[in-house]
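Hi support team,

I submitted a single chain yesterday and got back a structure, but I'm not sure I'm reading the token output correctly. Could someone confirm the output below corresponds to the sequence I sent? I've pasted both exactly as they appear in my results page.

Thanks,
R.
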Amino acid sequence: MNEQQRKEQSQIKQVNSADIKSGQDKPLNEKTSADFAKYFETTYEPPNLNKARKRGRDKVNVHYDFGIPEDMENIGKGKKFLIRTYGCQMNEHDTEVMAGILTEMGYEATFDTNEADIILLNTCAIRENAENKVFGEIGHLKPLKLENPDLILGVCGCMSQEESVVNKILEKHQHVDLIFGTHNIHRLPHLVKEAMFGKEKIVEVWSKEGDIIENLPKARKGKIKAWVNIMYGCDKFCTYCIVPMTRGKERSRKPEDIIQEIRHLAAQGYQEVTLLGQNVNAYGKDFEEMTYGLGDLMDDIHKIDIPRVRFTTSHPRDFDDRLIEVLAQGGNLLDHIHLPVQSGSSEVLKRMNRKYTREDYLELVRKIRKAIPNATLTTDIIVGFPNETEEQFEETMTLVEEVGFEAAFTFIYSPRDGTPAARKKDDVPEDVKKQRLYRLNELVNKQSATSMKTYNEAVVQVLVEGESKKNPDVLAGYTSKNKLVNFKGPKSSIGKIVDVKITESKTWSLNGIMVETTAEVN
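Hi R., thanks for writing in. Yes, this is the structure output for that exact sequence:
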């Protein structure tokens, strides 16, 4: 949605609560956004899942003219902000953008809630547990808001795109000042201005995705690893997933803009970039004027002088032969591939609307292994999808063994309001689901430990990210295959790729000693 389209959207301003029928007699789950409009006088644009489901043919425009409004350029001077991030790497990248915007407005970052003048909770909607954490944090921040009424408390990210969440915040957490969605982060200076000077609650959540804004500032952490967003949204509509509604339809950035950003990062000394997308290997499928996909983009990035390039998260259905061919070149294109399978049962995959079968997935793995024999595969798996039988779960177990995943993110299915799966009746008892998760984790842990043992006495290249959280005298970093390595070495090696000899393997990490390199004298 561009600025003109946004202005044309109907907004309720200067609302007279007498004109609105009271919703006090309704239970919360029956209330709609209209019931809460009486709380607002400044901006009110609520989320709408029905609108968010629609995939129109509207052209997505690319803008290069972002700037902080003159009257907001130094509004944060002498003030501080804190952003708490929940969820995926995309959320972390969004946090970098919001931090960049607030920094350009004069604010400084802080980790202390007592120092903050703005606190934003950048939320995740993928699982119920993440949502519960956010509501718990909103509750914990209430005394702080009561103590400091000038504090701006905001909720943004994927949860903000859900009607039920916004309604719950408005009903039960009226100390929240600002709610905005994933599509209008670039509007943050305007929203902060309204929150500061209007002194009213602000809600601005676009249910239709916005345009692509190219020159947004970013406050990245350090200068070692960087996220680079290459596309937005997802069109897959898996029956358990709310993301297509919270992130909108697939929109790809122009390749020249991505390549320019990565070249700039390389010039700044970054050692690794991770290409991000909700469905990253669908990149380019929305281009009408050219045929150019993730494989082509990776091929171009392969020529840039940056040591490591990763991408996440991919969908098996979009993992094509061109991408495999390019990854097989090696070099700075790493051979660690995260390939979510979700289930090993074709029947469950069908109910999930994943649009591939167990056999399709195994054939894709065969292709990858043939082209990239040493590839490391990791995955995501959901246990206890509605009405999953014991036989179907066993199919997941046998697939995990057959593929030989070296790690997996495993979850018990969590119903999300507004998704088809949430309407399914489920006859699998909770204790059965927990037992299946336990068995799956045992298998994954065993496979991880086995793969780690192959590194004993090996010398690996480690990108050193900093000190170990447990011991400041120990450094920590990751191999090209994304294995965590702890070792003792000089602090001067932080930010560099160094050789480490592995002395001990654990289930999820490796210990080692740094190999001193000696210059050869002829």
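A quick pointer for reading it: The two ends are 64 Å apart (CA to CA). Let us know if anything else looks off.

Best,
Support desk
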